[in-house]
Specification:
The complex is a heterodimer of chains A (177) and B (120). Chain A is built from seven helices and no strands. Chain A has helices spanning 3-24, 28-48, 52-76, 92-113, 126-135, 138-159, 167-176. Chain A is globular. Chain B is an all-alpha fold and 120 residues long. Chain B has a domain at 25-90. Classes of the chains: A mainly alpha (177), B mainly alpha (120).
Chain lengths: 177, 120
């Protein structure tokens, strides 16, 4: 067990524990806050695995943007403060599928890798990753920009009910503006 | 570095995400569980990048970046749908969503302006 192994074990335990709390807690807001702990532990995992740029992008986009968006949604849907009783369905089918899937995958991966060890490669700095993105993966990168634009337009259209209405209500709303 | 440790972490996180998607009734909590699954896949990609010597260096980390961008787009559109659902039905319980096209509209409003707006 090297230092990296100990760090990976500790961060993995934190990630799995807080992930379990995300899907088990009865407080809506606390689920979002435990998600922050889980994603932060995963960012630490990425740092240990020498993926520097991915770790910082994870902190910026997931912890910074996605969780804040989720917490805004929790507040905009008037979530109650305190525990809610109607959050869950009966649990055993979900526990069967989720536990079976997770433990099955874990057994498969343990069987594939055993207790082997590898040396960590050179760190994935922004320079090296940028070289790869803009040299080998330029086409997927550009397609992703189109997809982000489509998602932006879709979110705006979804959240503005006055876009694309049938003709007669659109007419008087247009006159109002 | 023993690669089995992050791999098993990712497998357990994915199982937790599946459990959350099937168990939770609140749409925002379902989206949080989906985020757990996406992060498990990212951890697999980053770990595979350190263990597999691919022809192109750092492909796994580039893929993880792409998945993060996809997750950001997904959460934006997903939350727009959830908020529209809340506006129409004053509840985000996924069990109550009418799946038929002209299902019973409890609020008496014109049925679902959002999908019509999305198609044109």
């Amino acid at each position: 067990m090297t230092g990296a192994d100990v760090l990976l074990l500790a961060l993995g335990a934190v990630a799995v524990g807080s992930g379990a709390l995300v899907v088990a807690t009865r407080h809506l807001v606390r689920a979002g806050l435990w998600l922050v702990v889980c994603l932060g532990a995963l960012a630490g995992d990425y740092l240990v695995l020498t993926a520097e740029l991915v770790a910082w992008v994870q902190v910026l986009i997931y912890v910074g943007a996605v969780v804040v968006l989720l917490l805004f949604a929790v507040m905009l849907t008037r979530a109650p403060i305190g525990p809610s009783d109607d959050l869950d369905r009966p649990g055993w089918p979900a526990a069967l599928v989720g536990g079976g899937g997770g433990l099955g995958l874990a057994v498969l991966l343990v069987d594939a890798f055993r207790w082997s060890r590898v040396d960590l490669p050179a760190a994935g700095t922004a320079e090296r990753l940028g070289e790869q993105v803009f040299r080998s993966w330029v086409l997927p990168f550009e397609v992703l920009s189109v997809l982000l634009l489509a998602a932006l337009v879709g979110a705006i259209v979804l959240s503005r009910p006055d876009i694309g209405r049938p003709a007669e209500p659109a007419a008087d709303e247009g006159g109002r503006r | 570095m023993r690669p089995v440790i992050p791999y098993v972490t990712a497998a357990l996180l994915f199982g937790l995400g599946v459990y959350g998607v099937l168990r939770r009734r609140n749409a925002v909590l379902v989206l949080m569980a989906v985020e757990l699954m996406l992060n498990a896949v990212n951890l697999i990609l980053v770990t595979a990048d350190t263990t597999v010597r691919a022809a192109l260096p750092h492909s796994g980390q580039v893929f993880a970046l792409f998945v993060i961008v996809l997750a950001a787009a997904e959460i934006g559109v997903g939350l727009a749908i959830v908020l529209q659902l809340y506006r129409l039905r004053a509840s985000v319980t996924v069990d109550d969503v009418p799946l038929a096209e002209h299902g019973p509209t409890a609020t008496g409003e014109p049925a679902s302006p959002a999908p019509e707006g999305a198609t044109r």
